[in-house]
Amino acid sequence: MTEVLAGLRLRFGPPVGTNVDIESGSSSQQQWIWHTGEDVIVAVKSDQRPFLLSYRPSLLDPYFL
Length: 65
What we know:
This protein is α+β, with helices and mostly antiparallel strands. The chain has one domain. The chain contains 1 helix and 4 strands; from the N terminus they run αββββ. Strands 1-2-3-4 form a 4-stranded antiparallel beta sheet, with helices on one face. The longest helix is centred in the N-terminal third of the chain and has 11 residues. The chain starts with a helix and ends in an 8-residue tail after the last strand.
């Protein structure tokens, strides 16, 4: 997972958004979001699920970010 995040940072720069959710239990989730100009890449790490990488075409104009 660390290698994937490092590769995304190297290729696309720092994420445009990060998020850490700690729920009222022992579960937590971390999320990183990259907007490449044409695509959105989301990486999610959770205590209850394995590492997840999501990729989808972006509908946003990157000049608005």
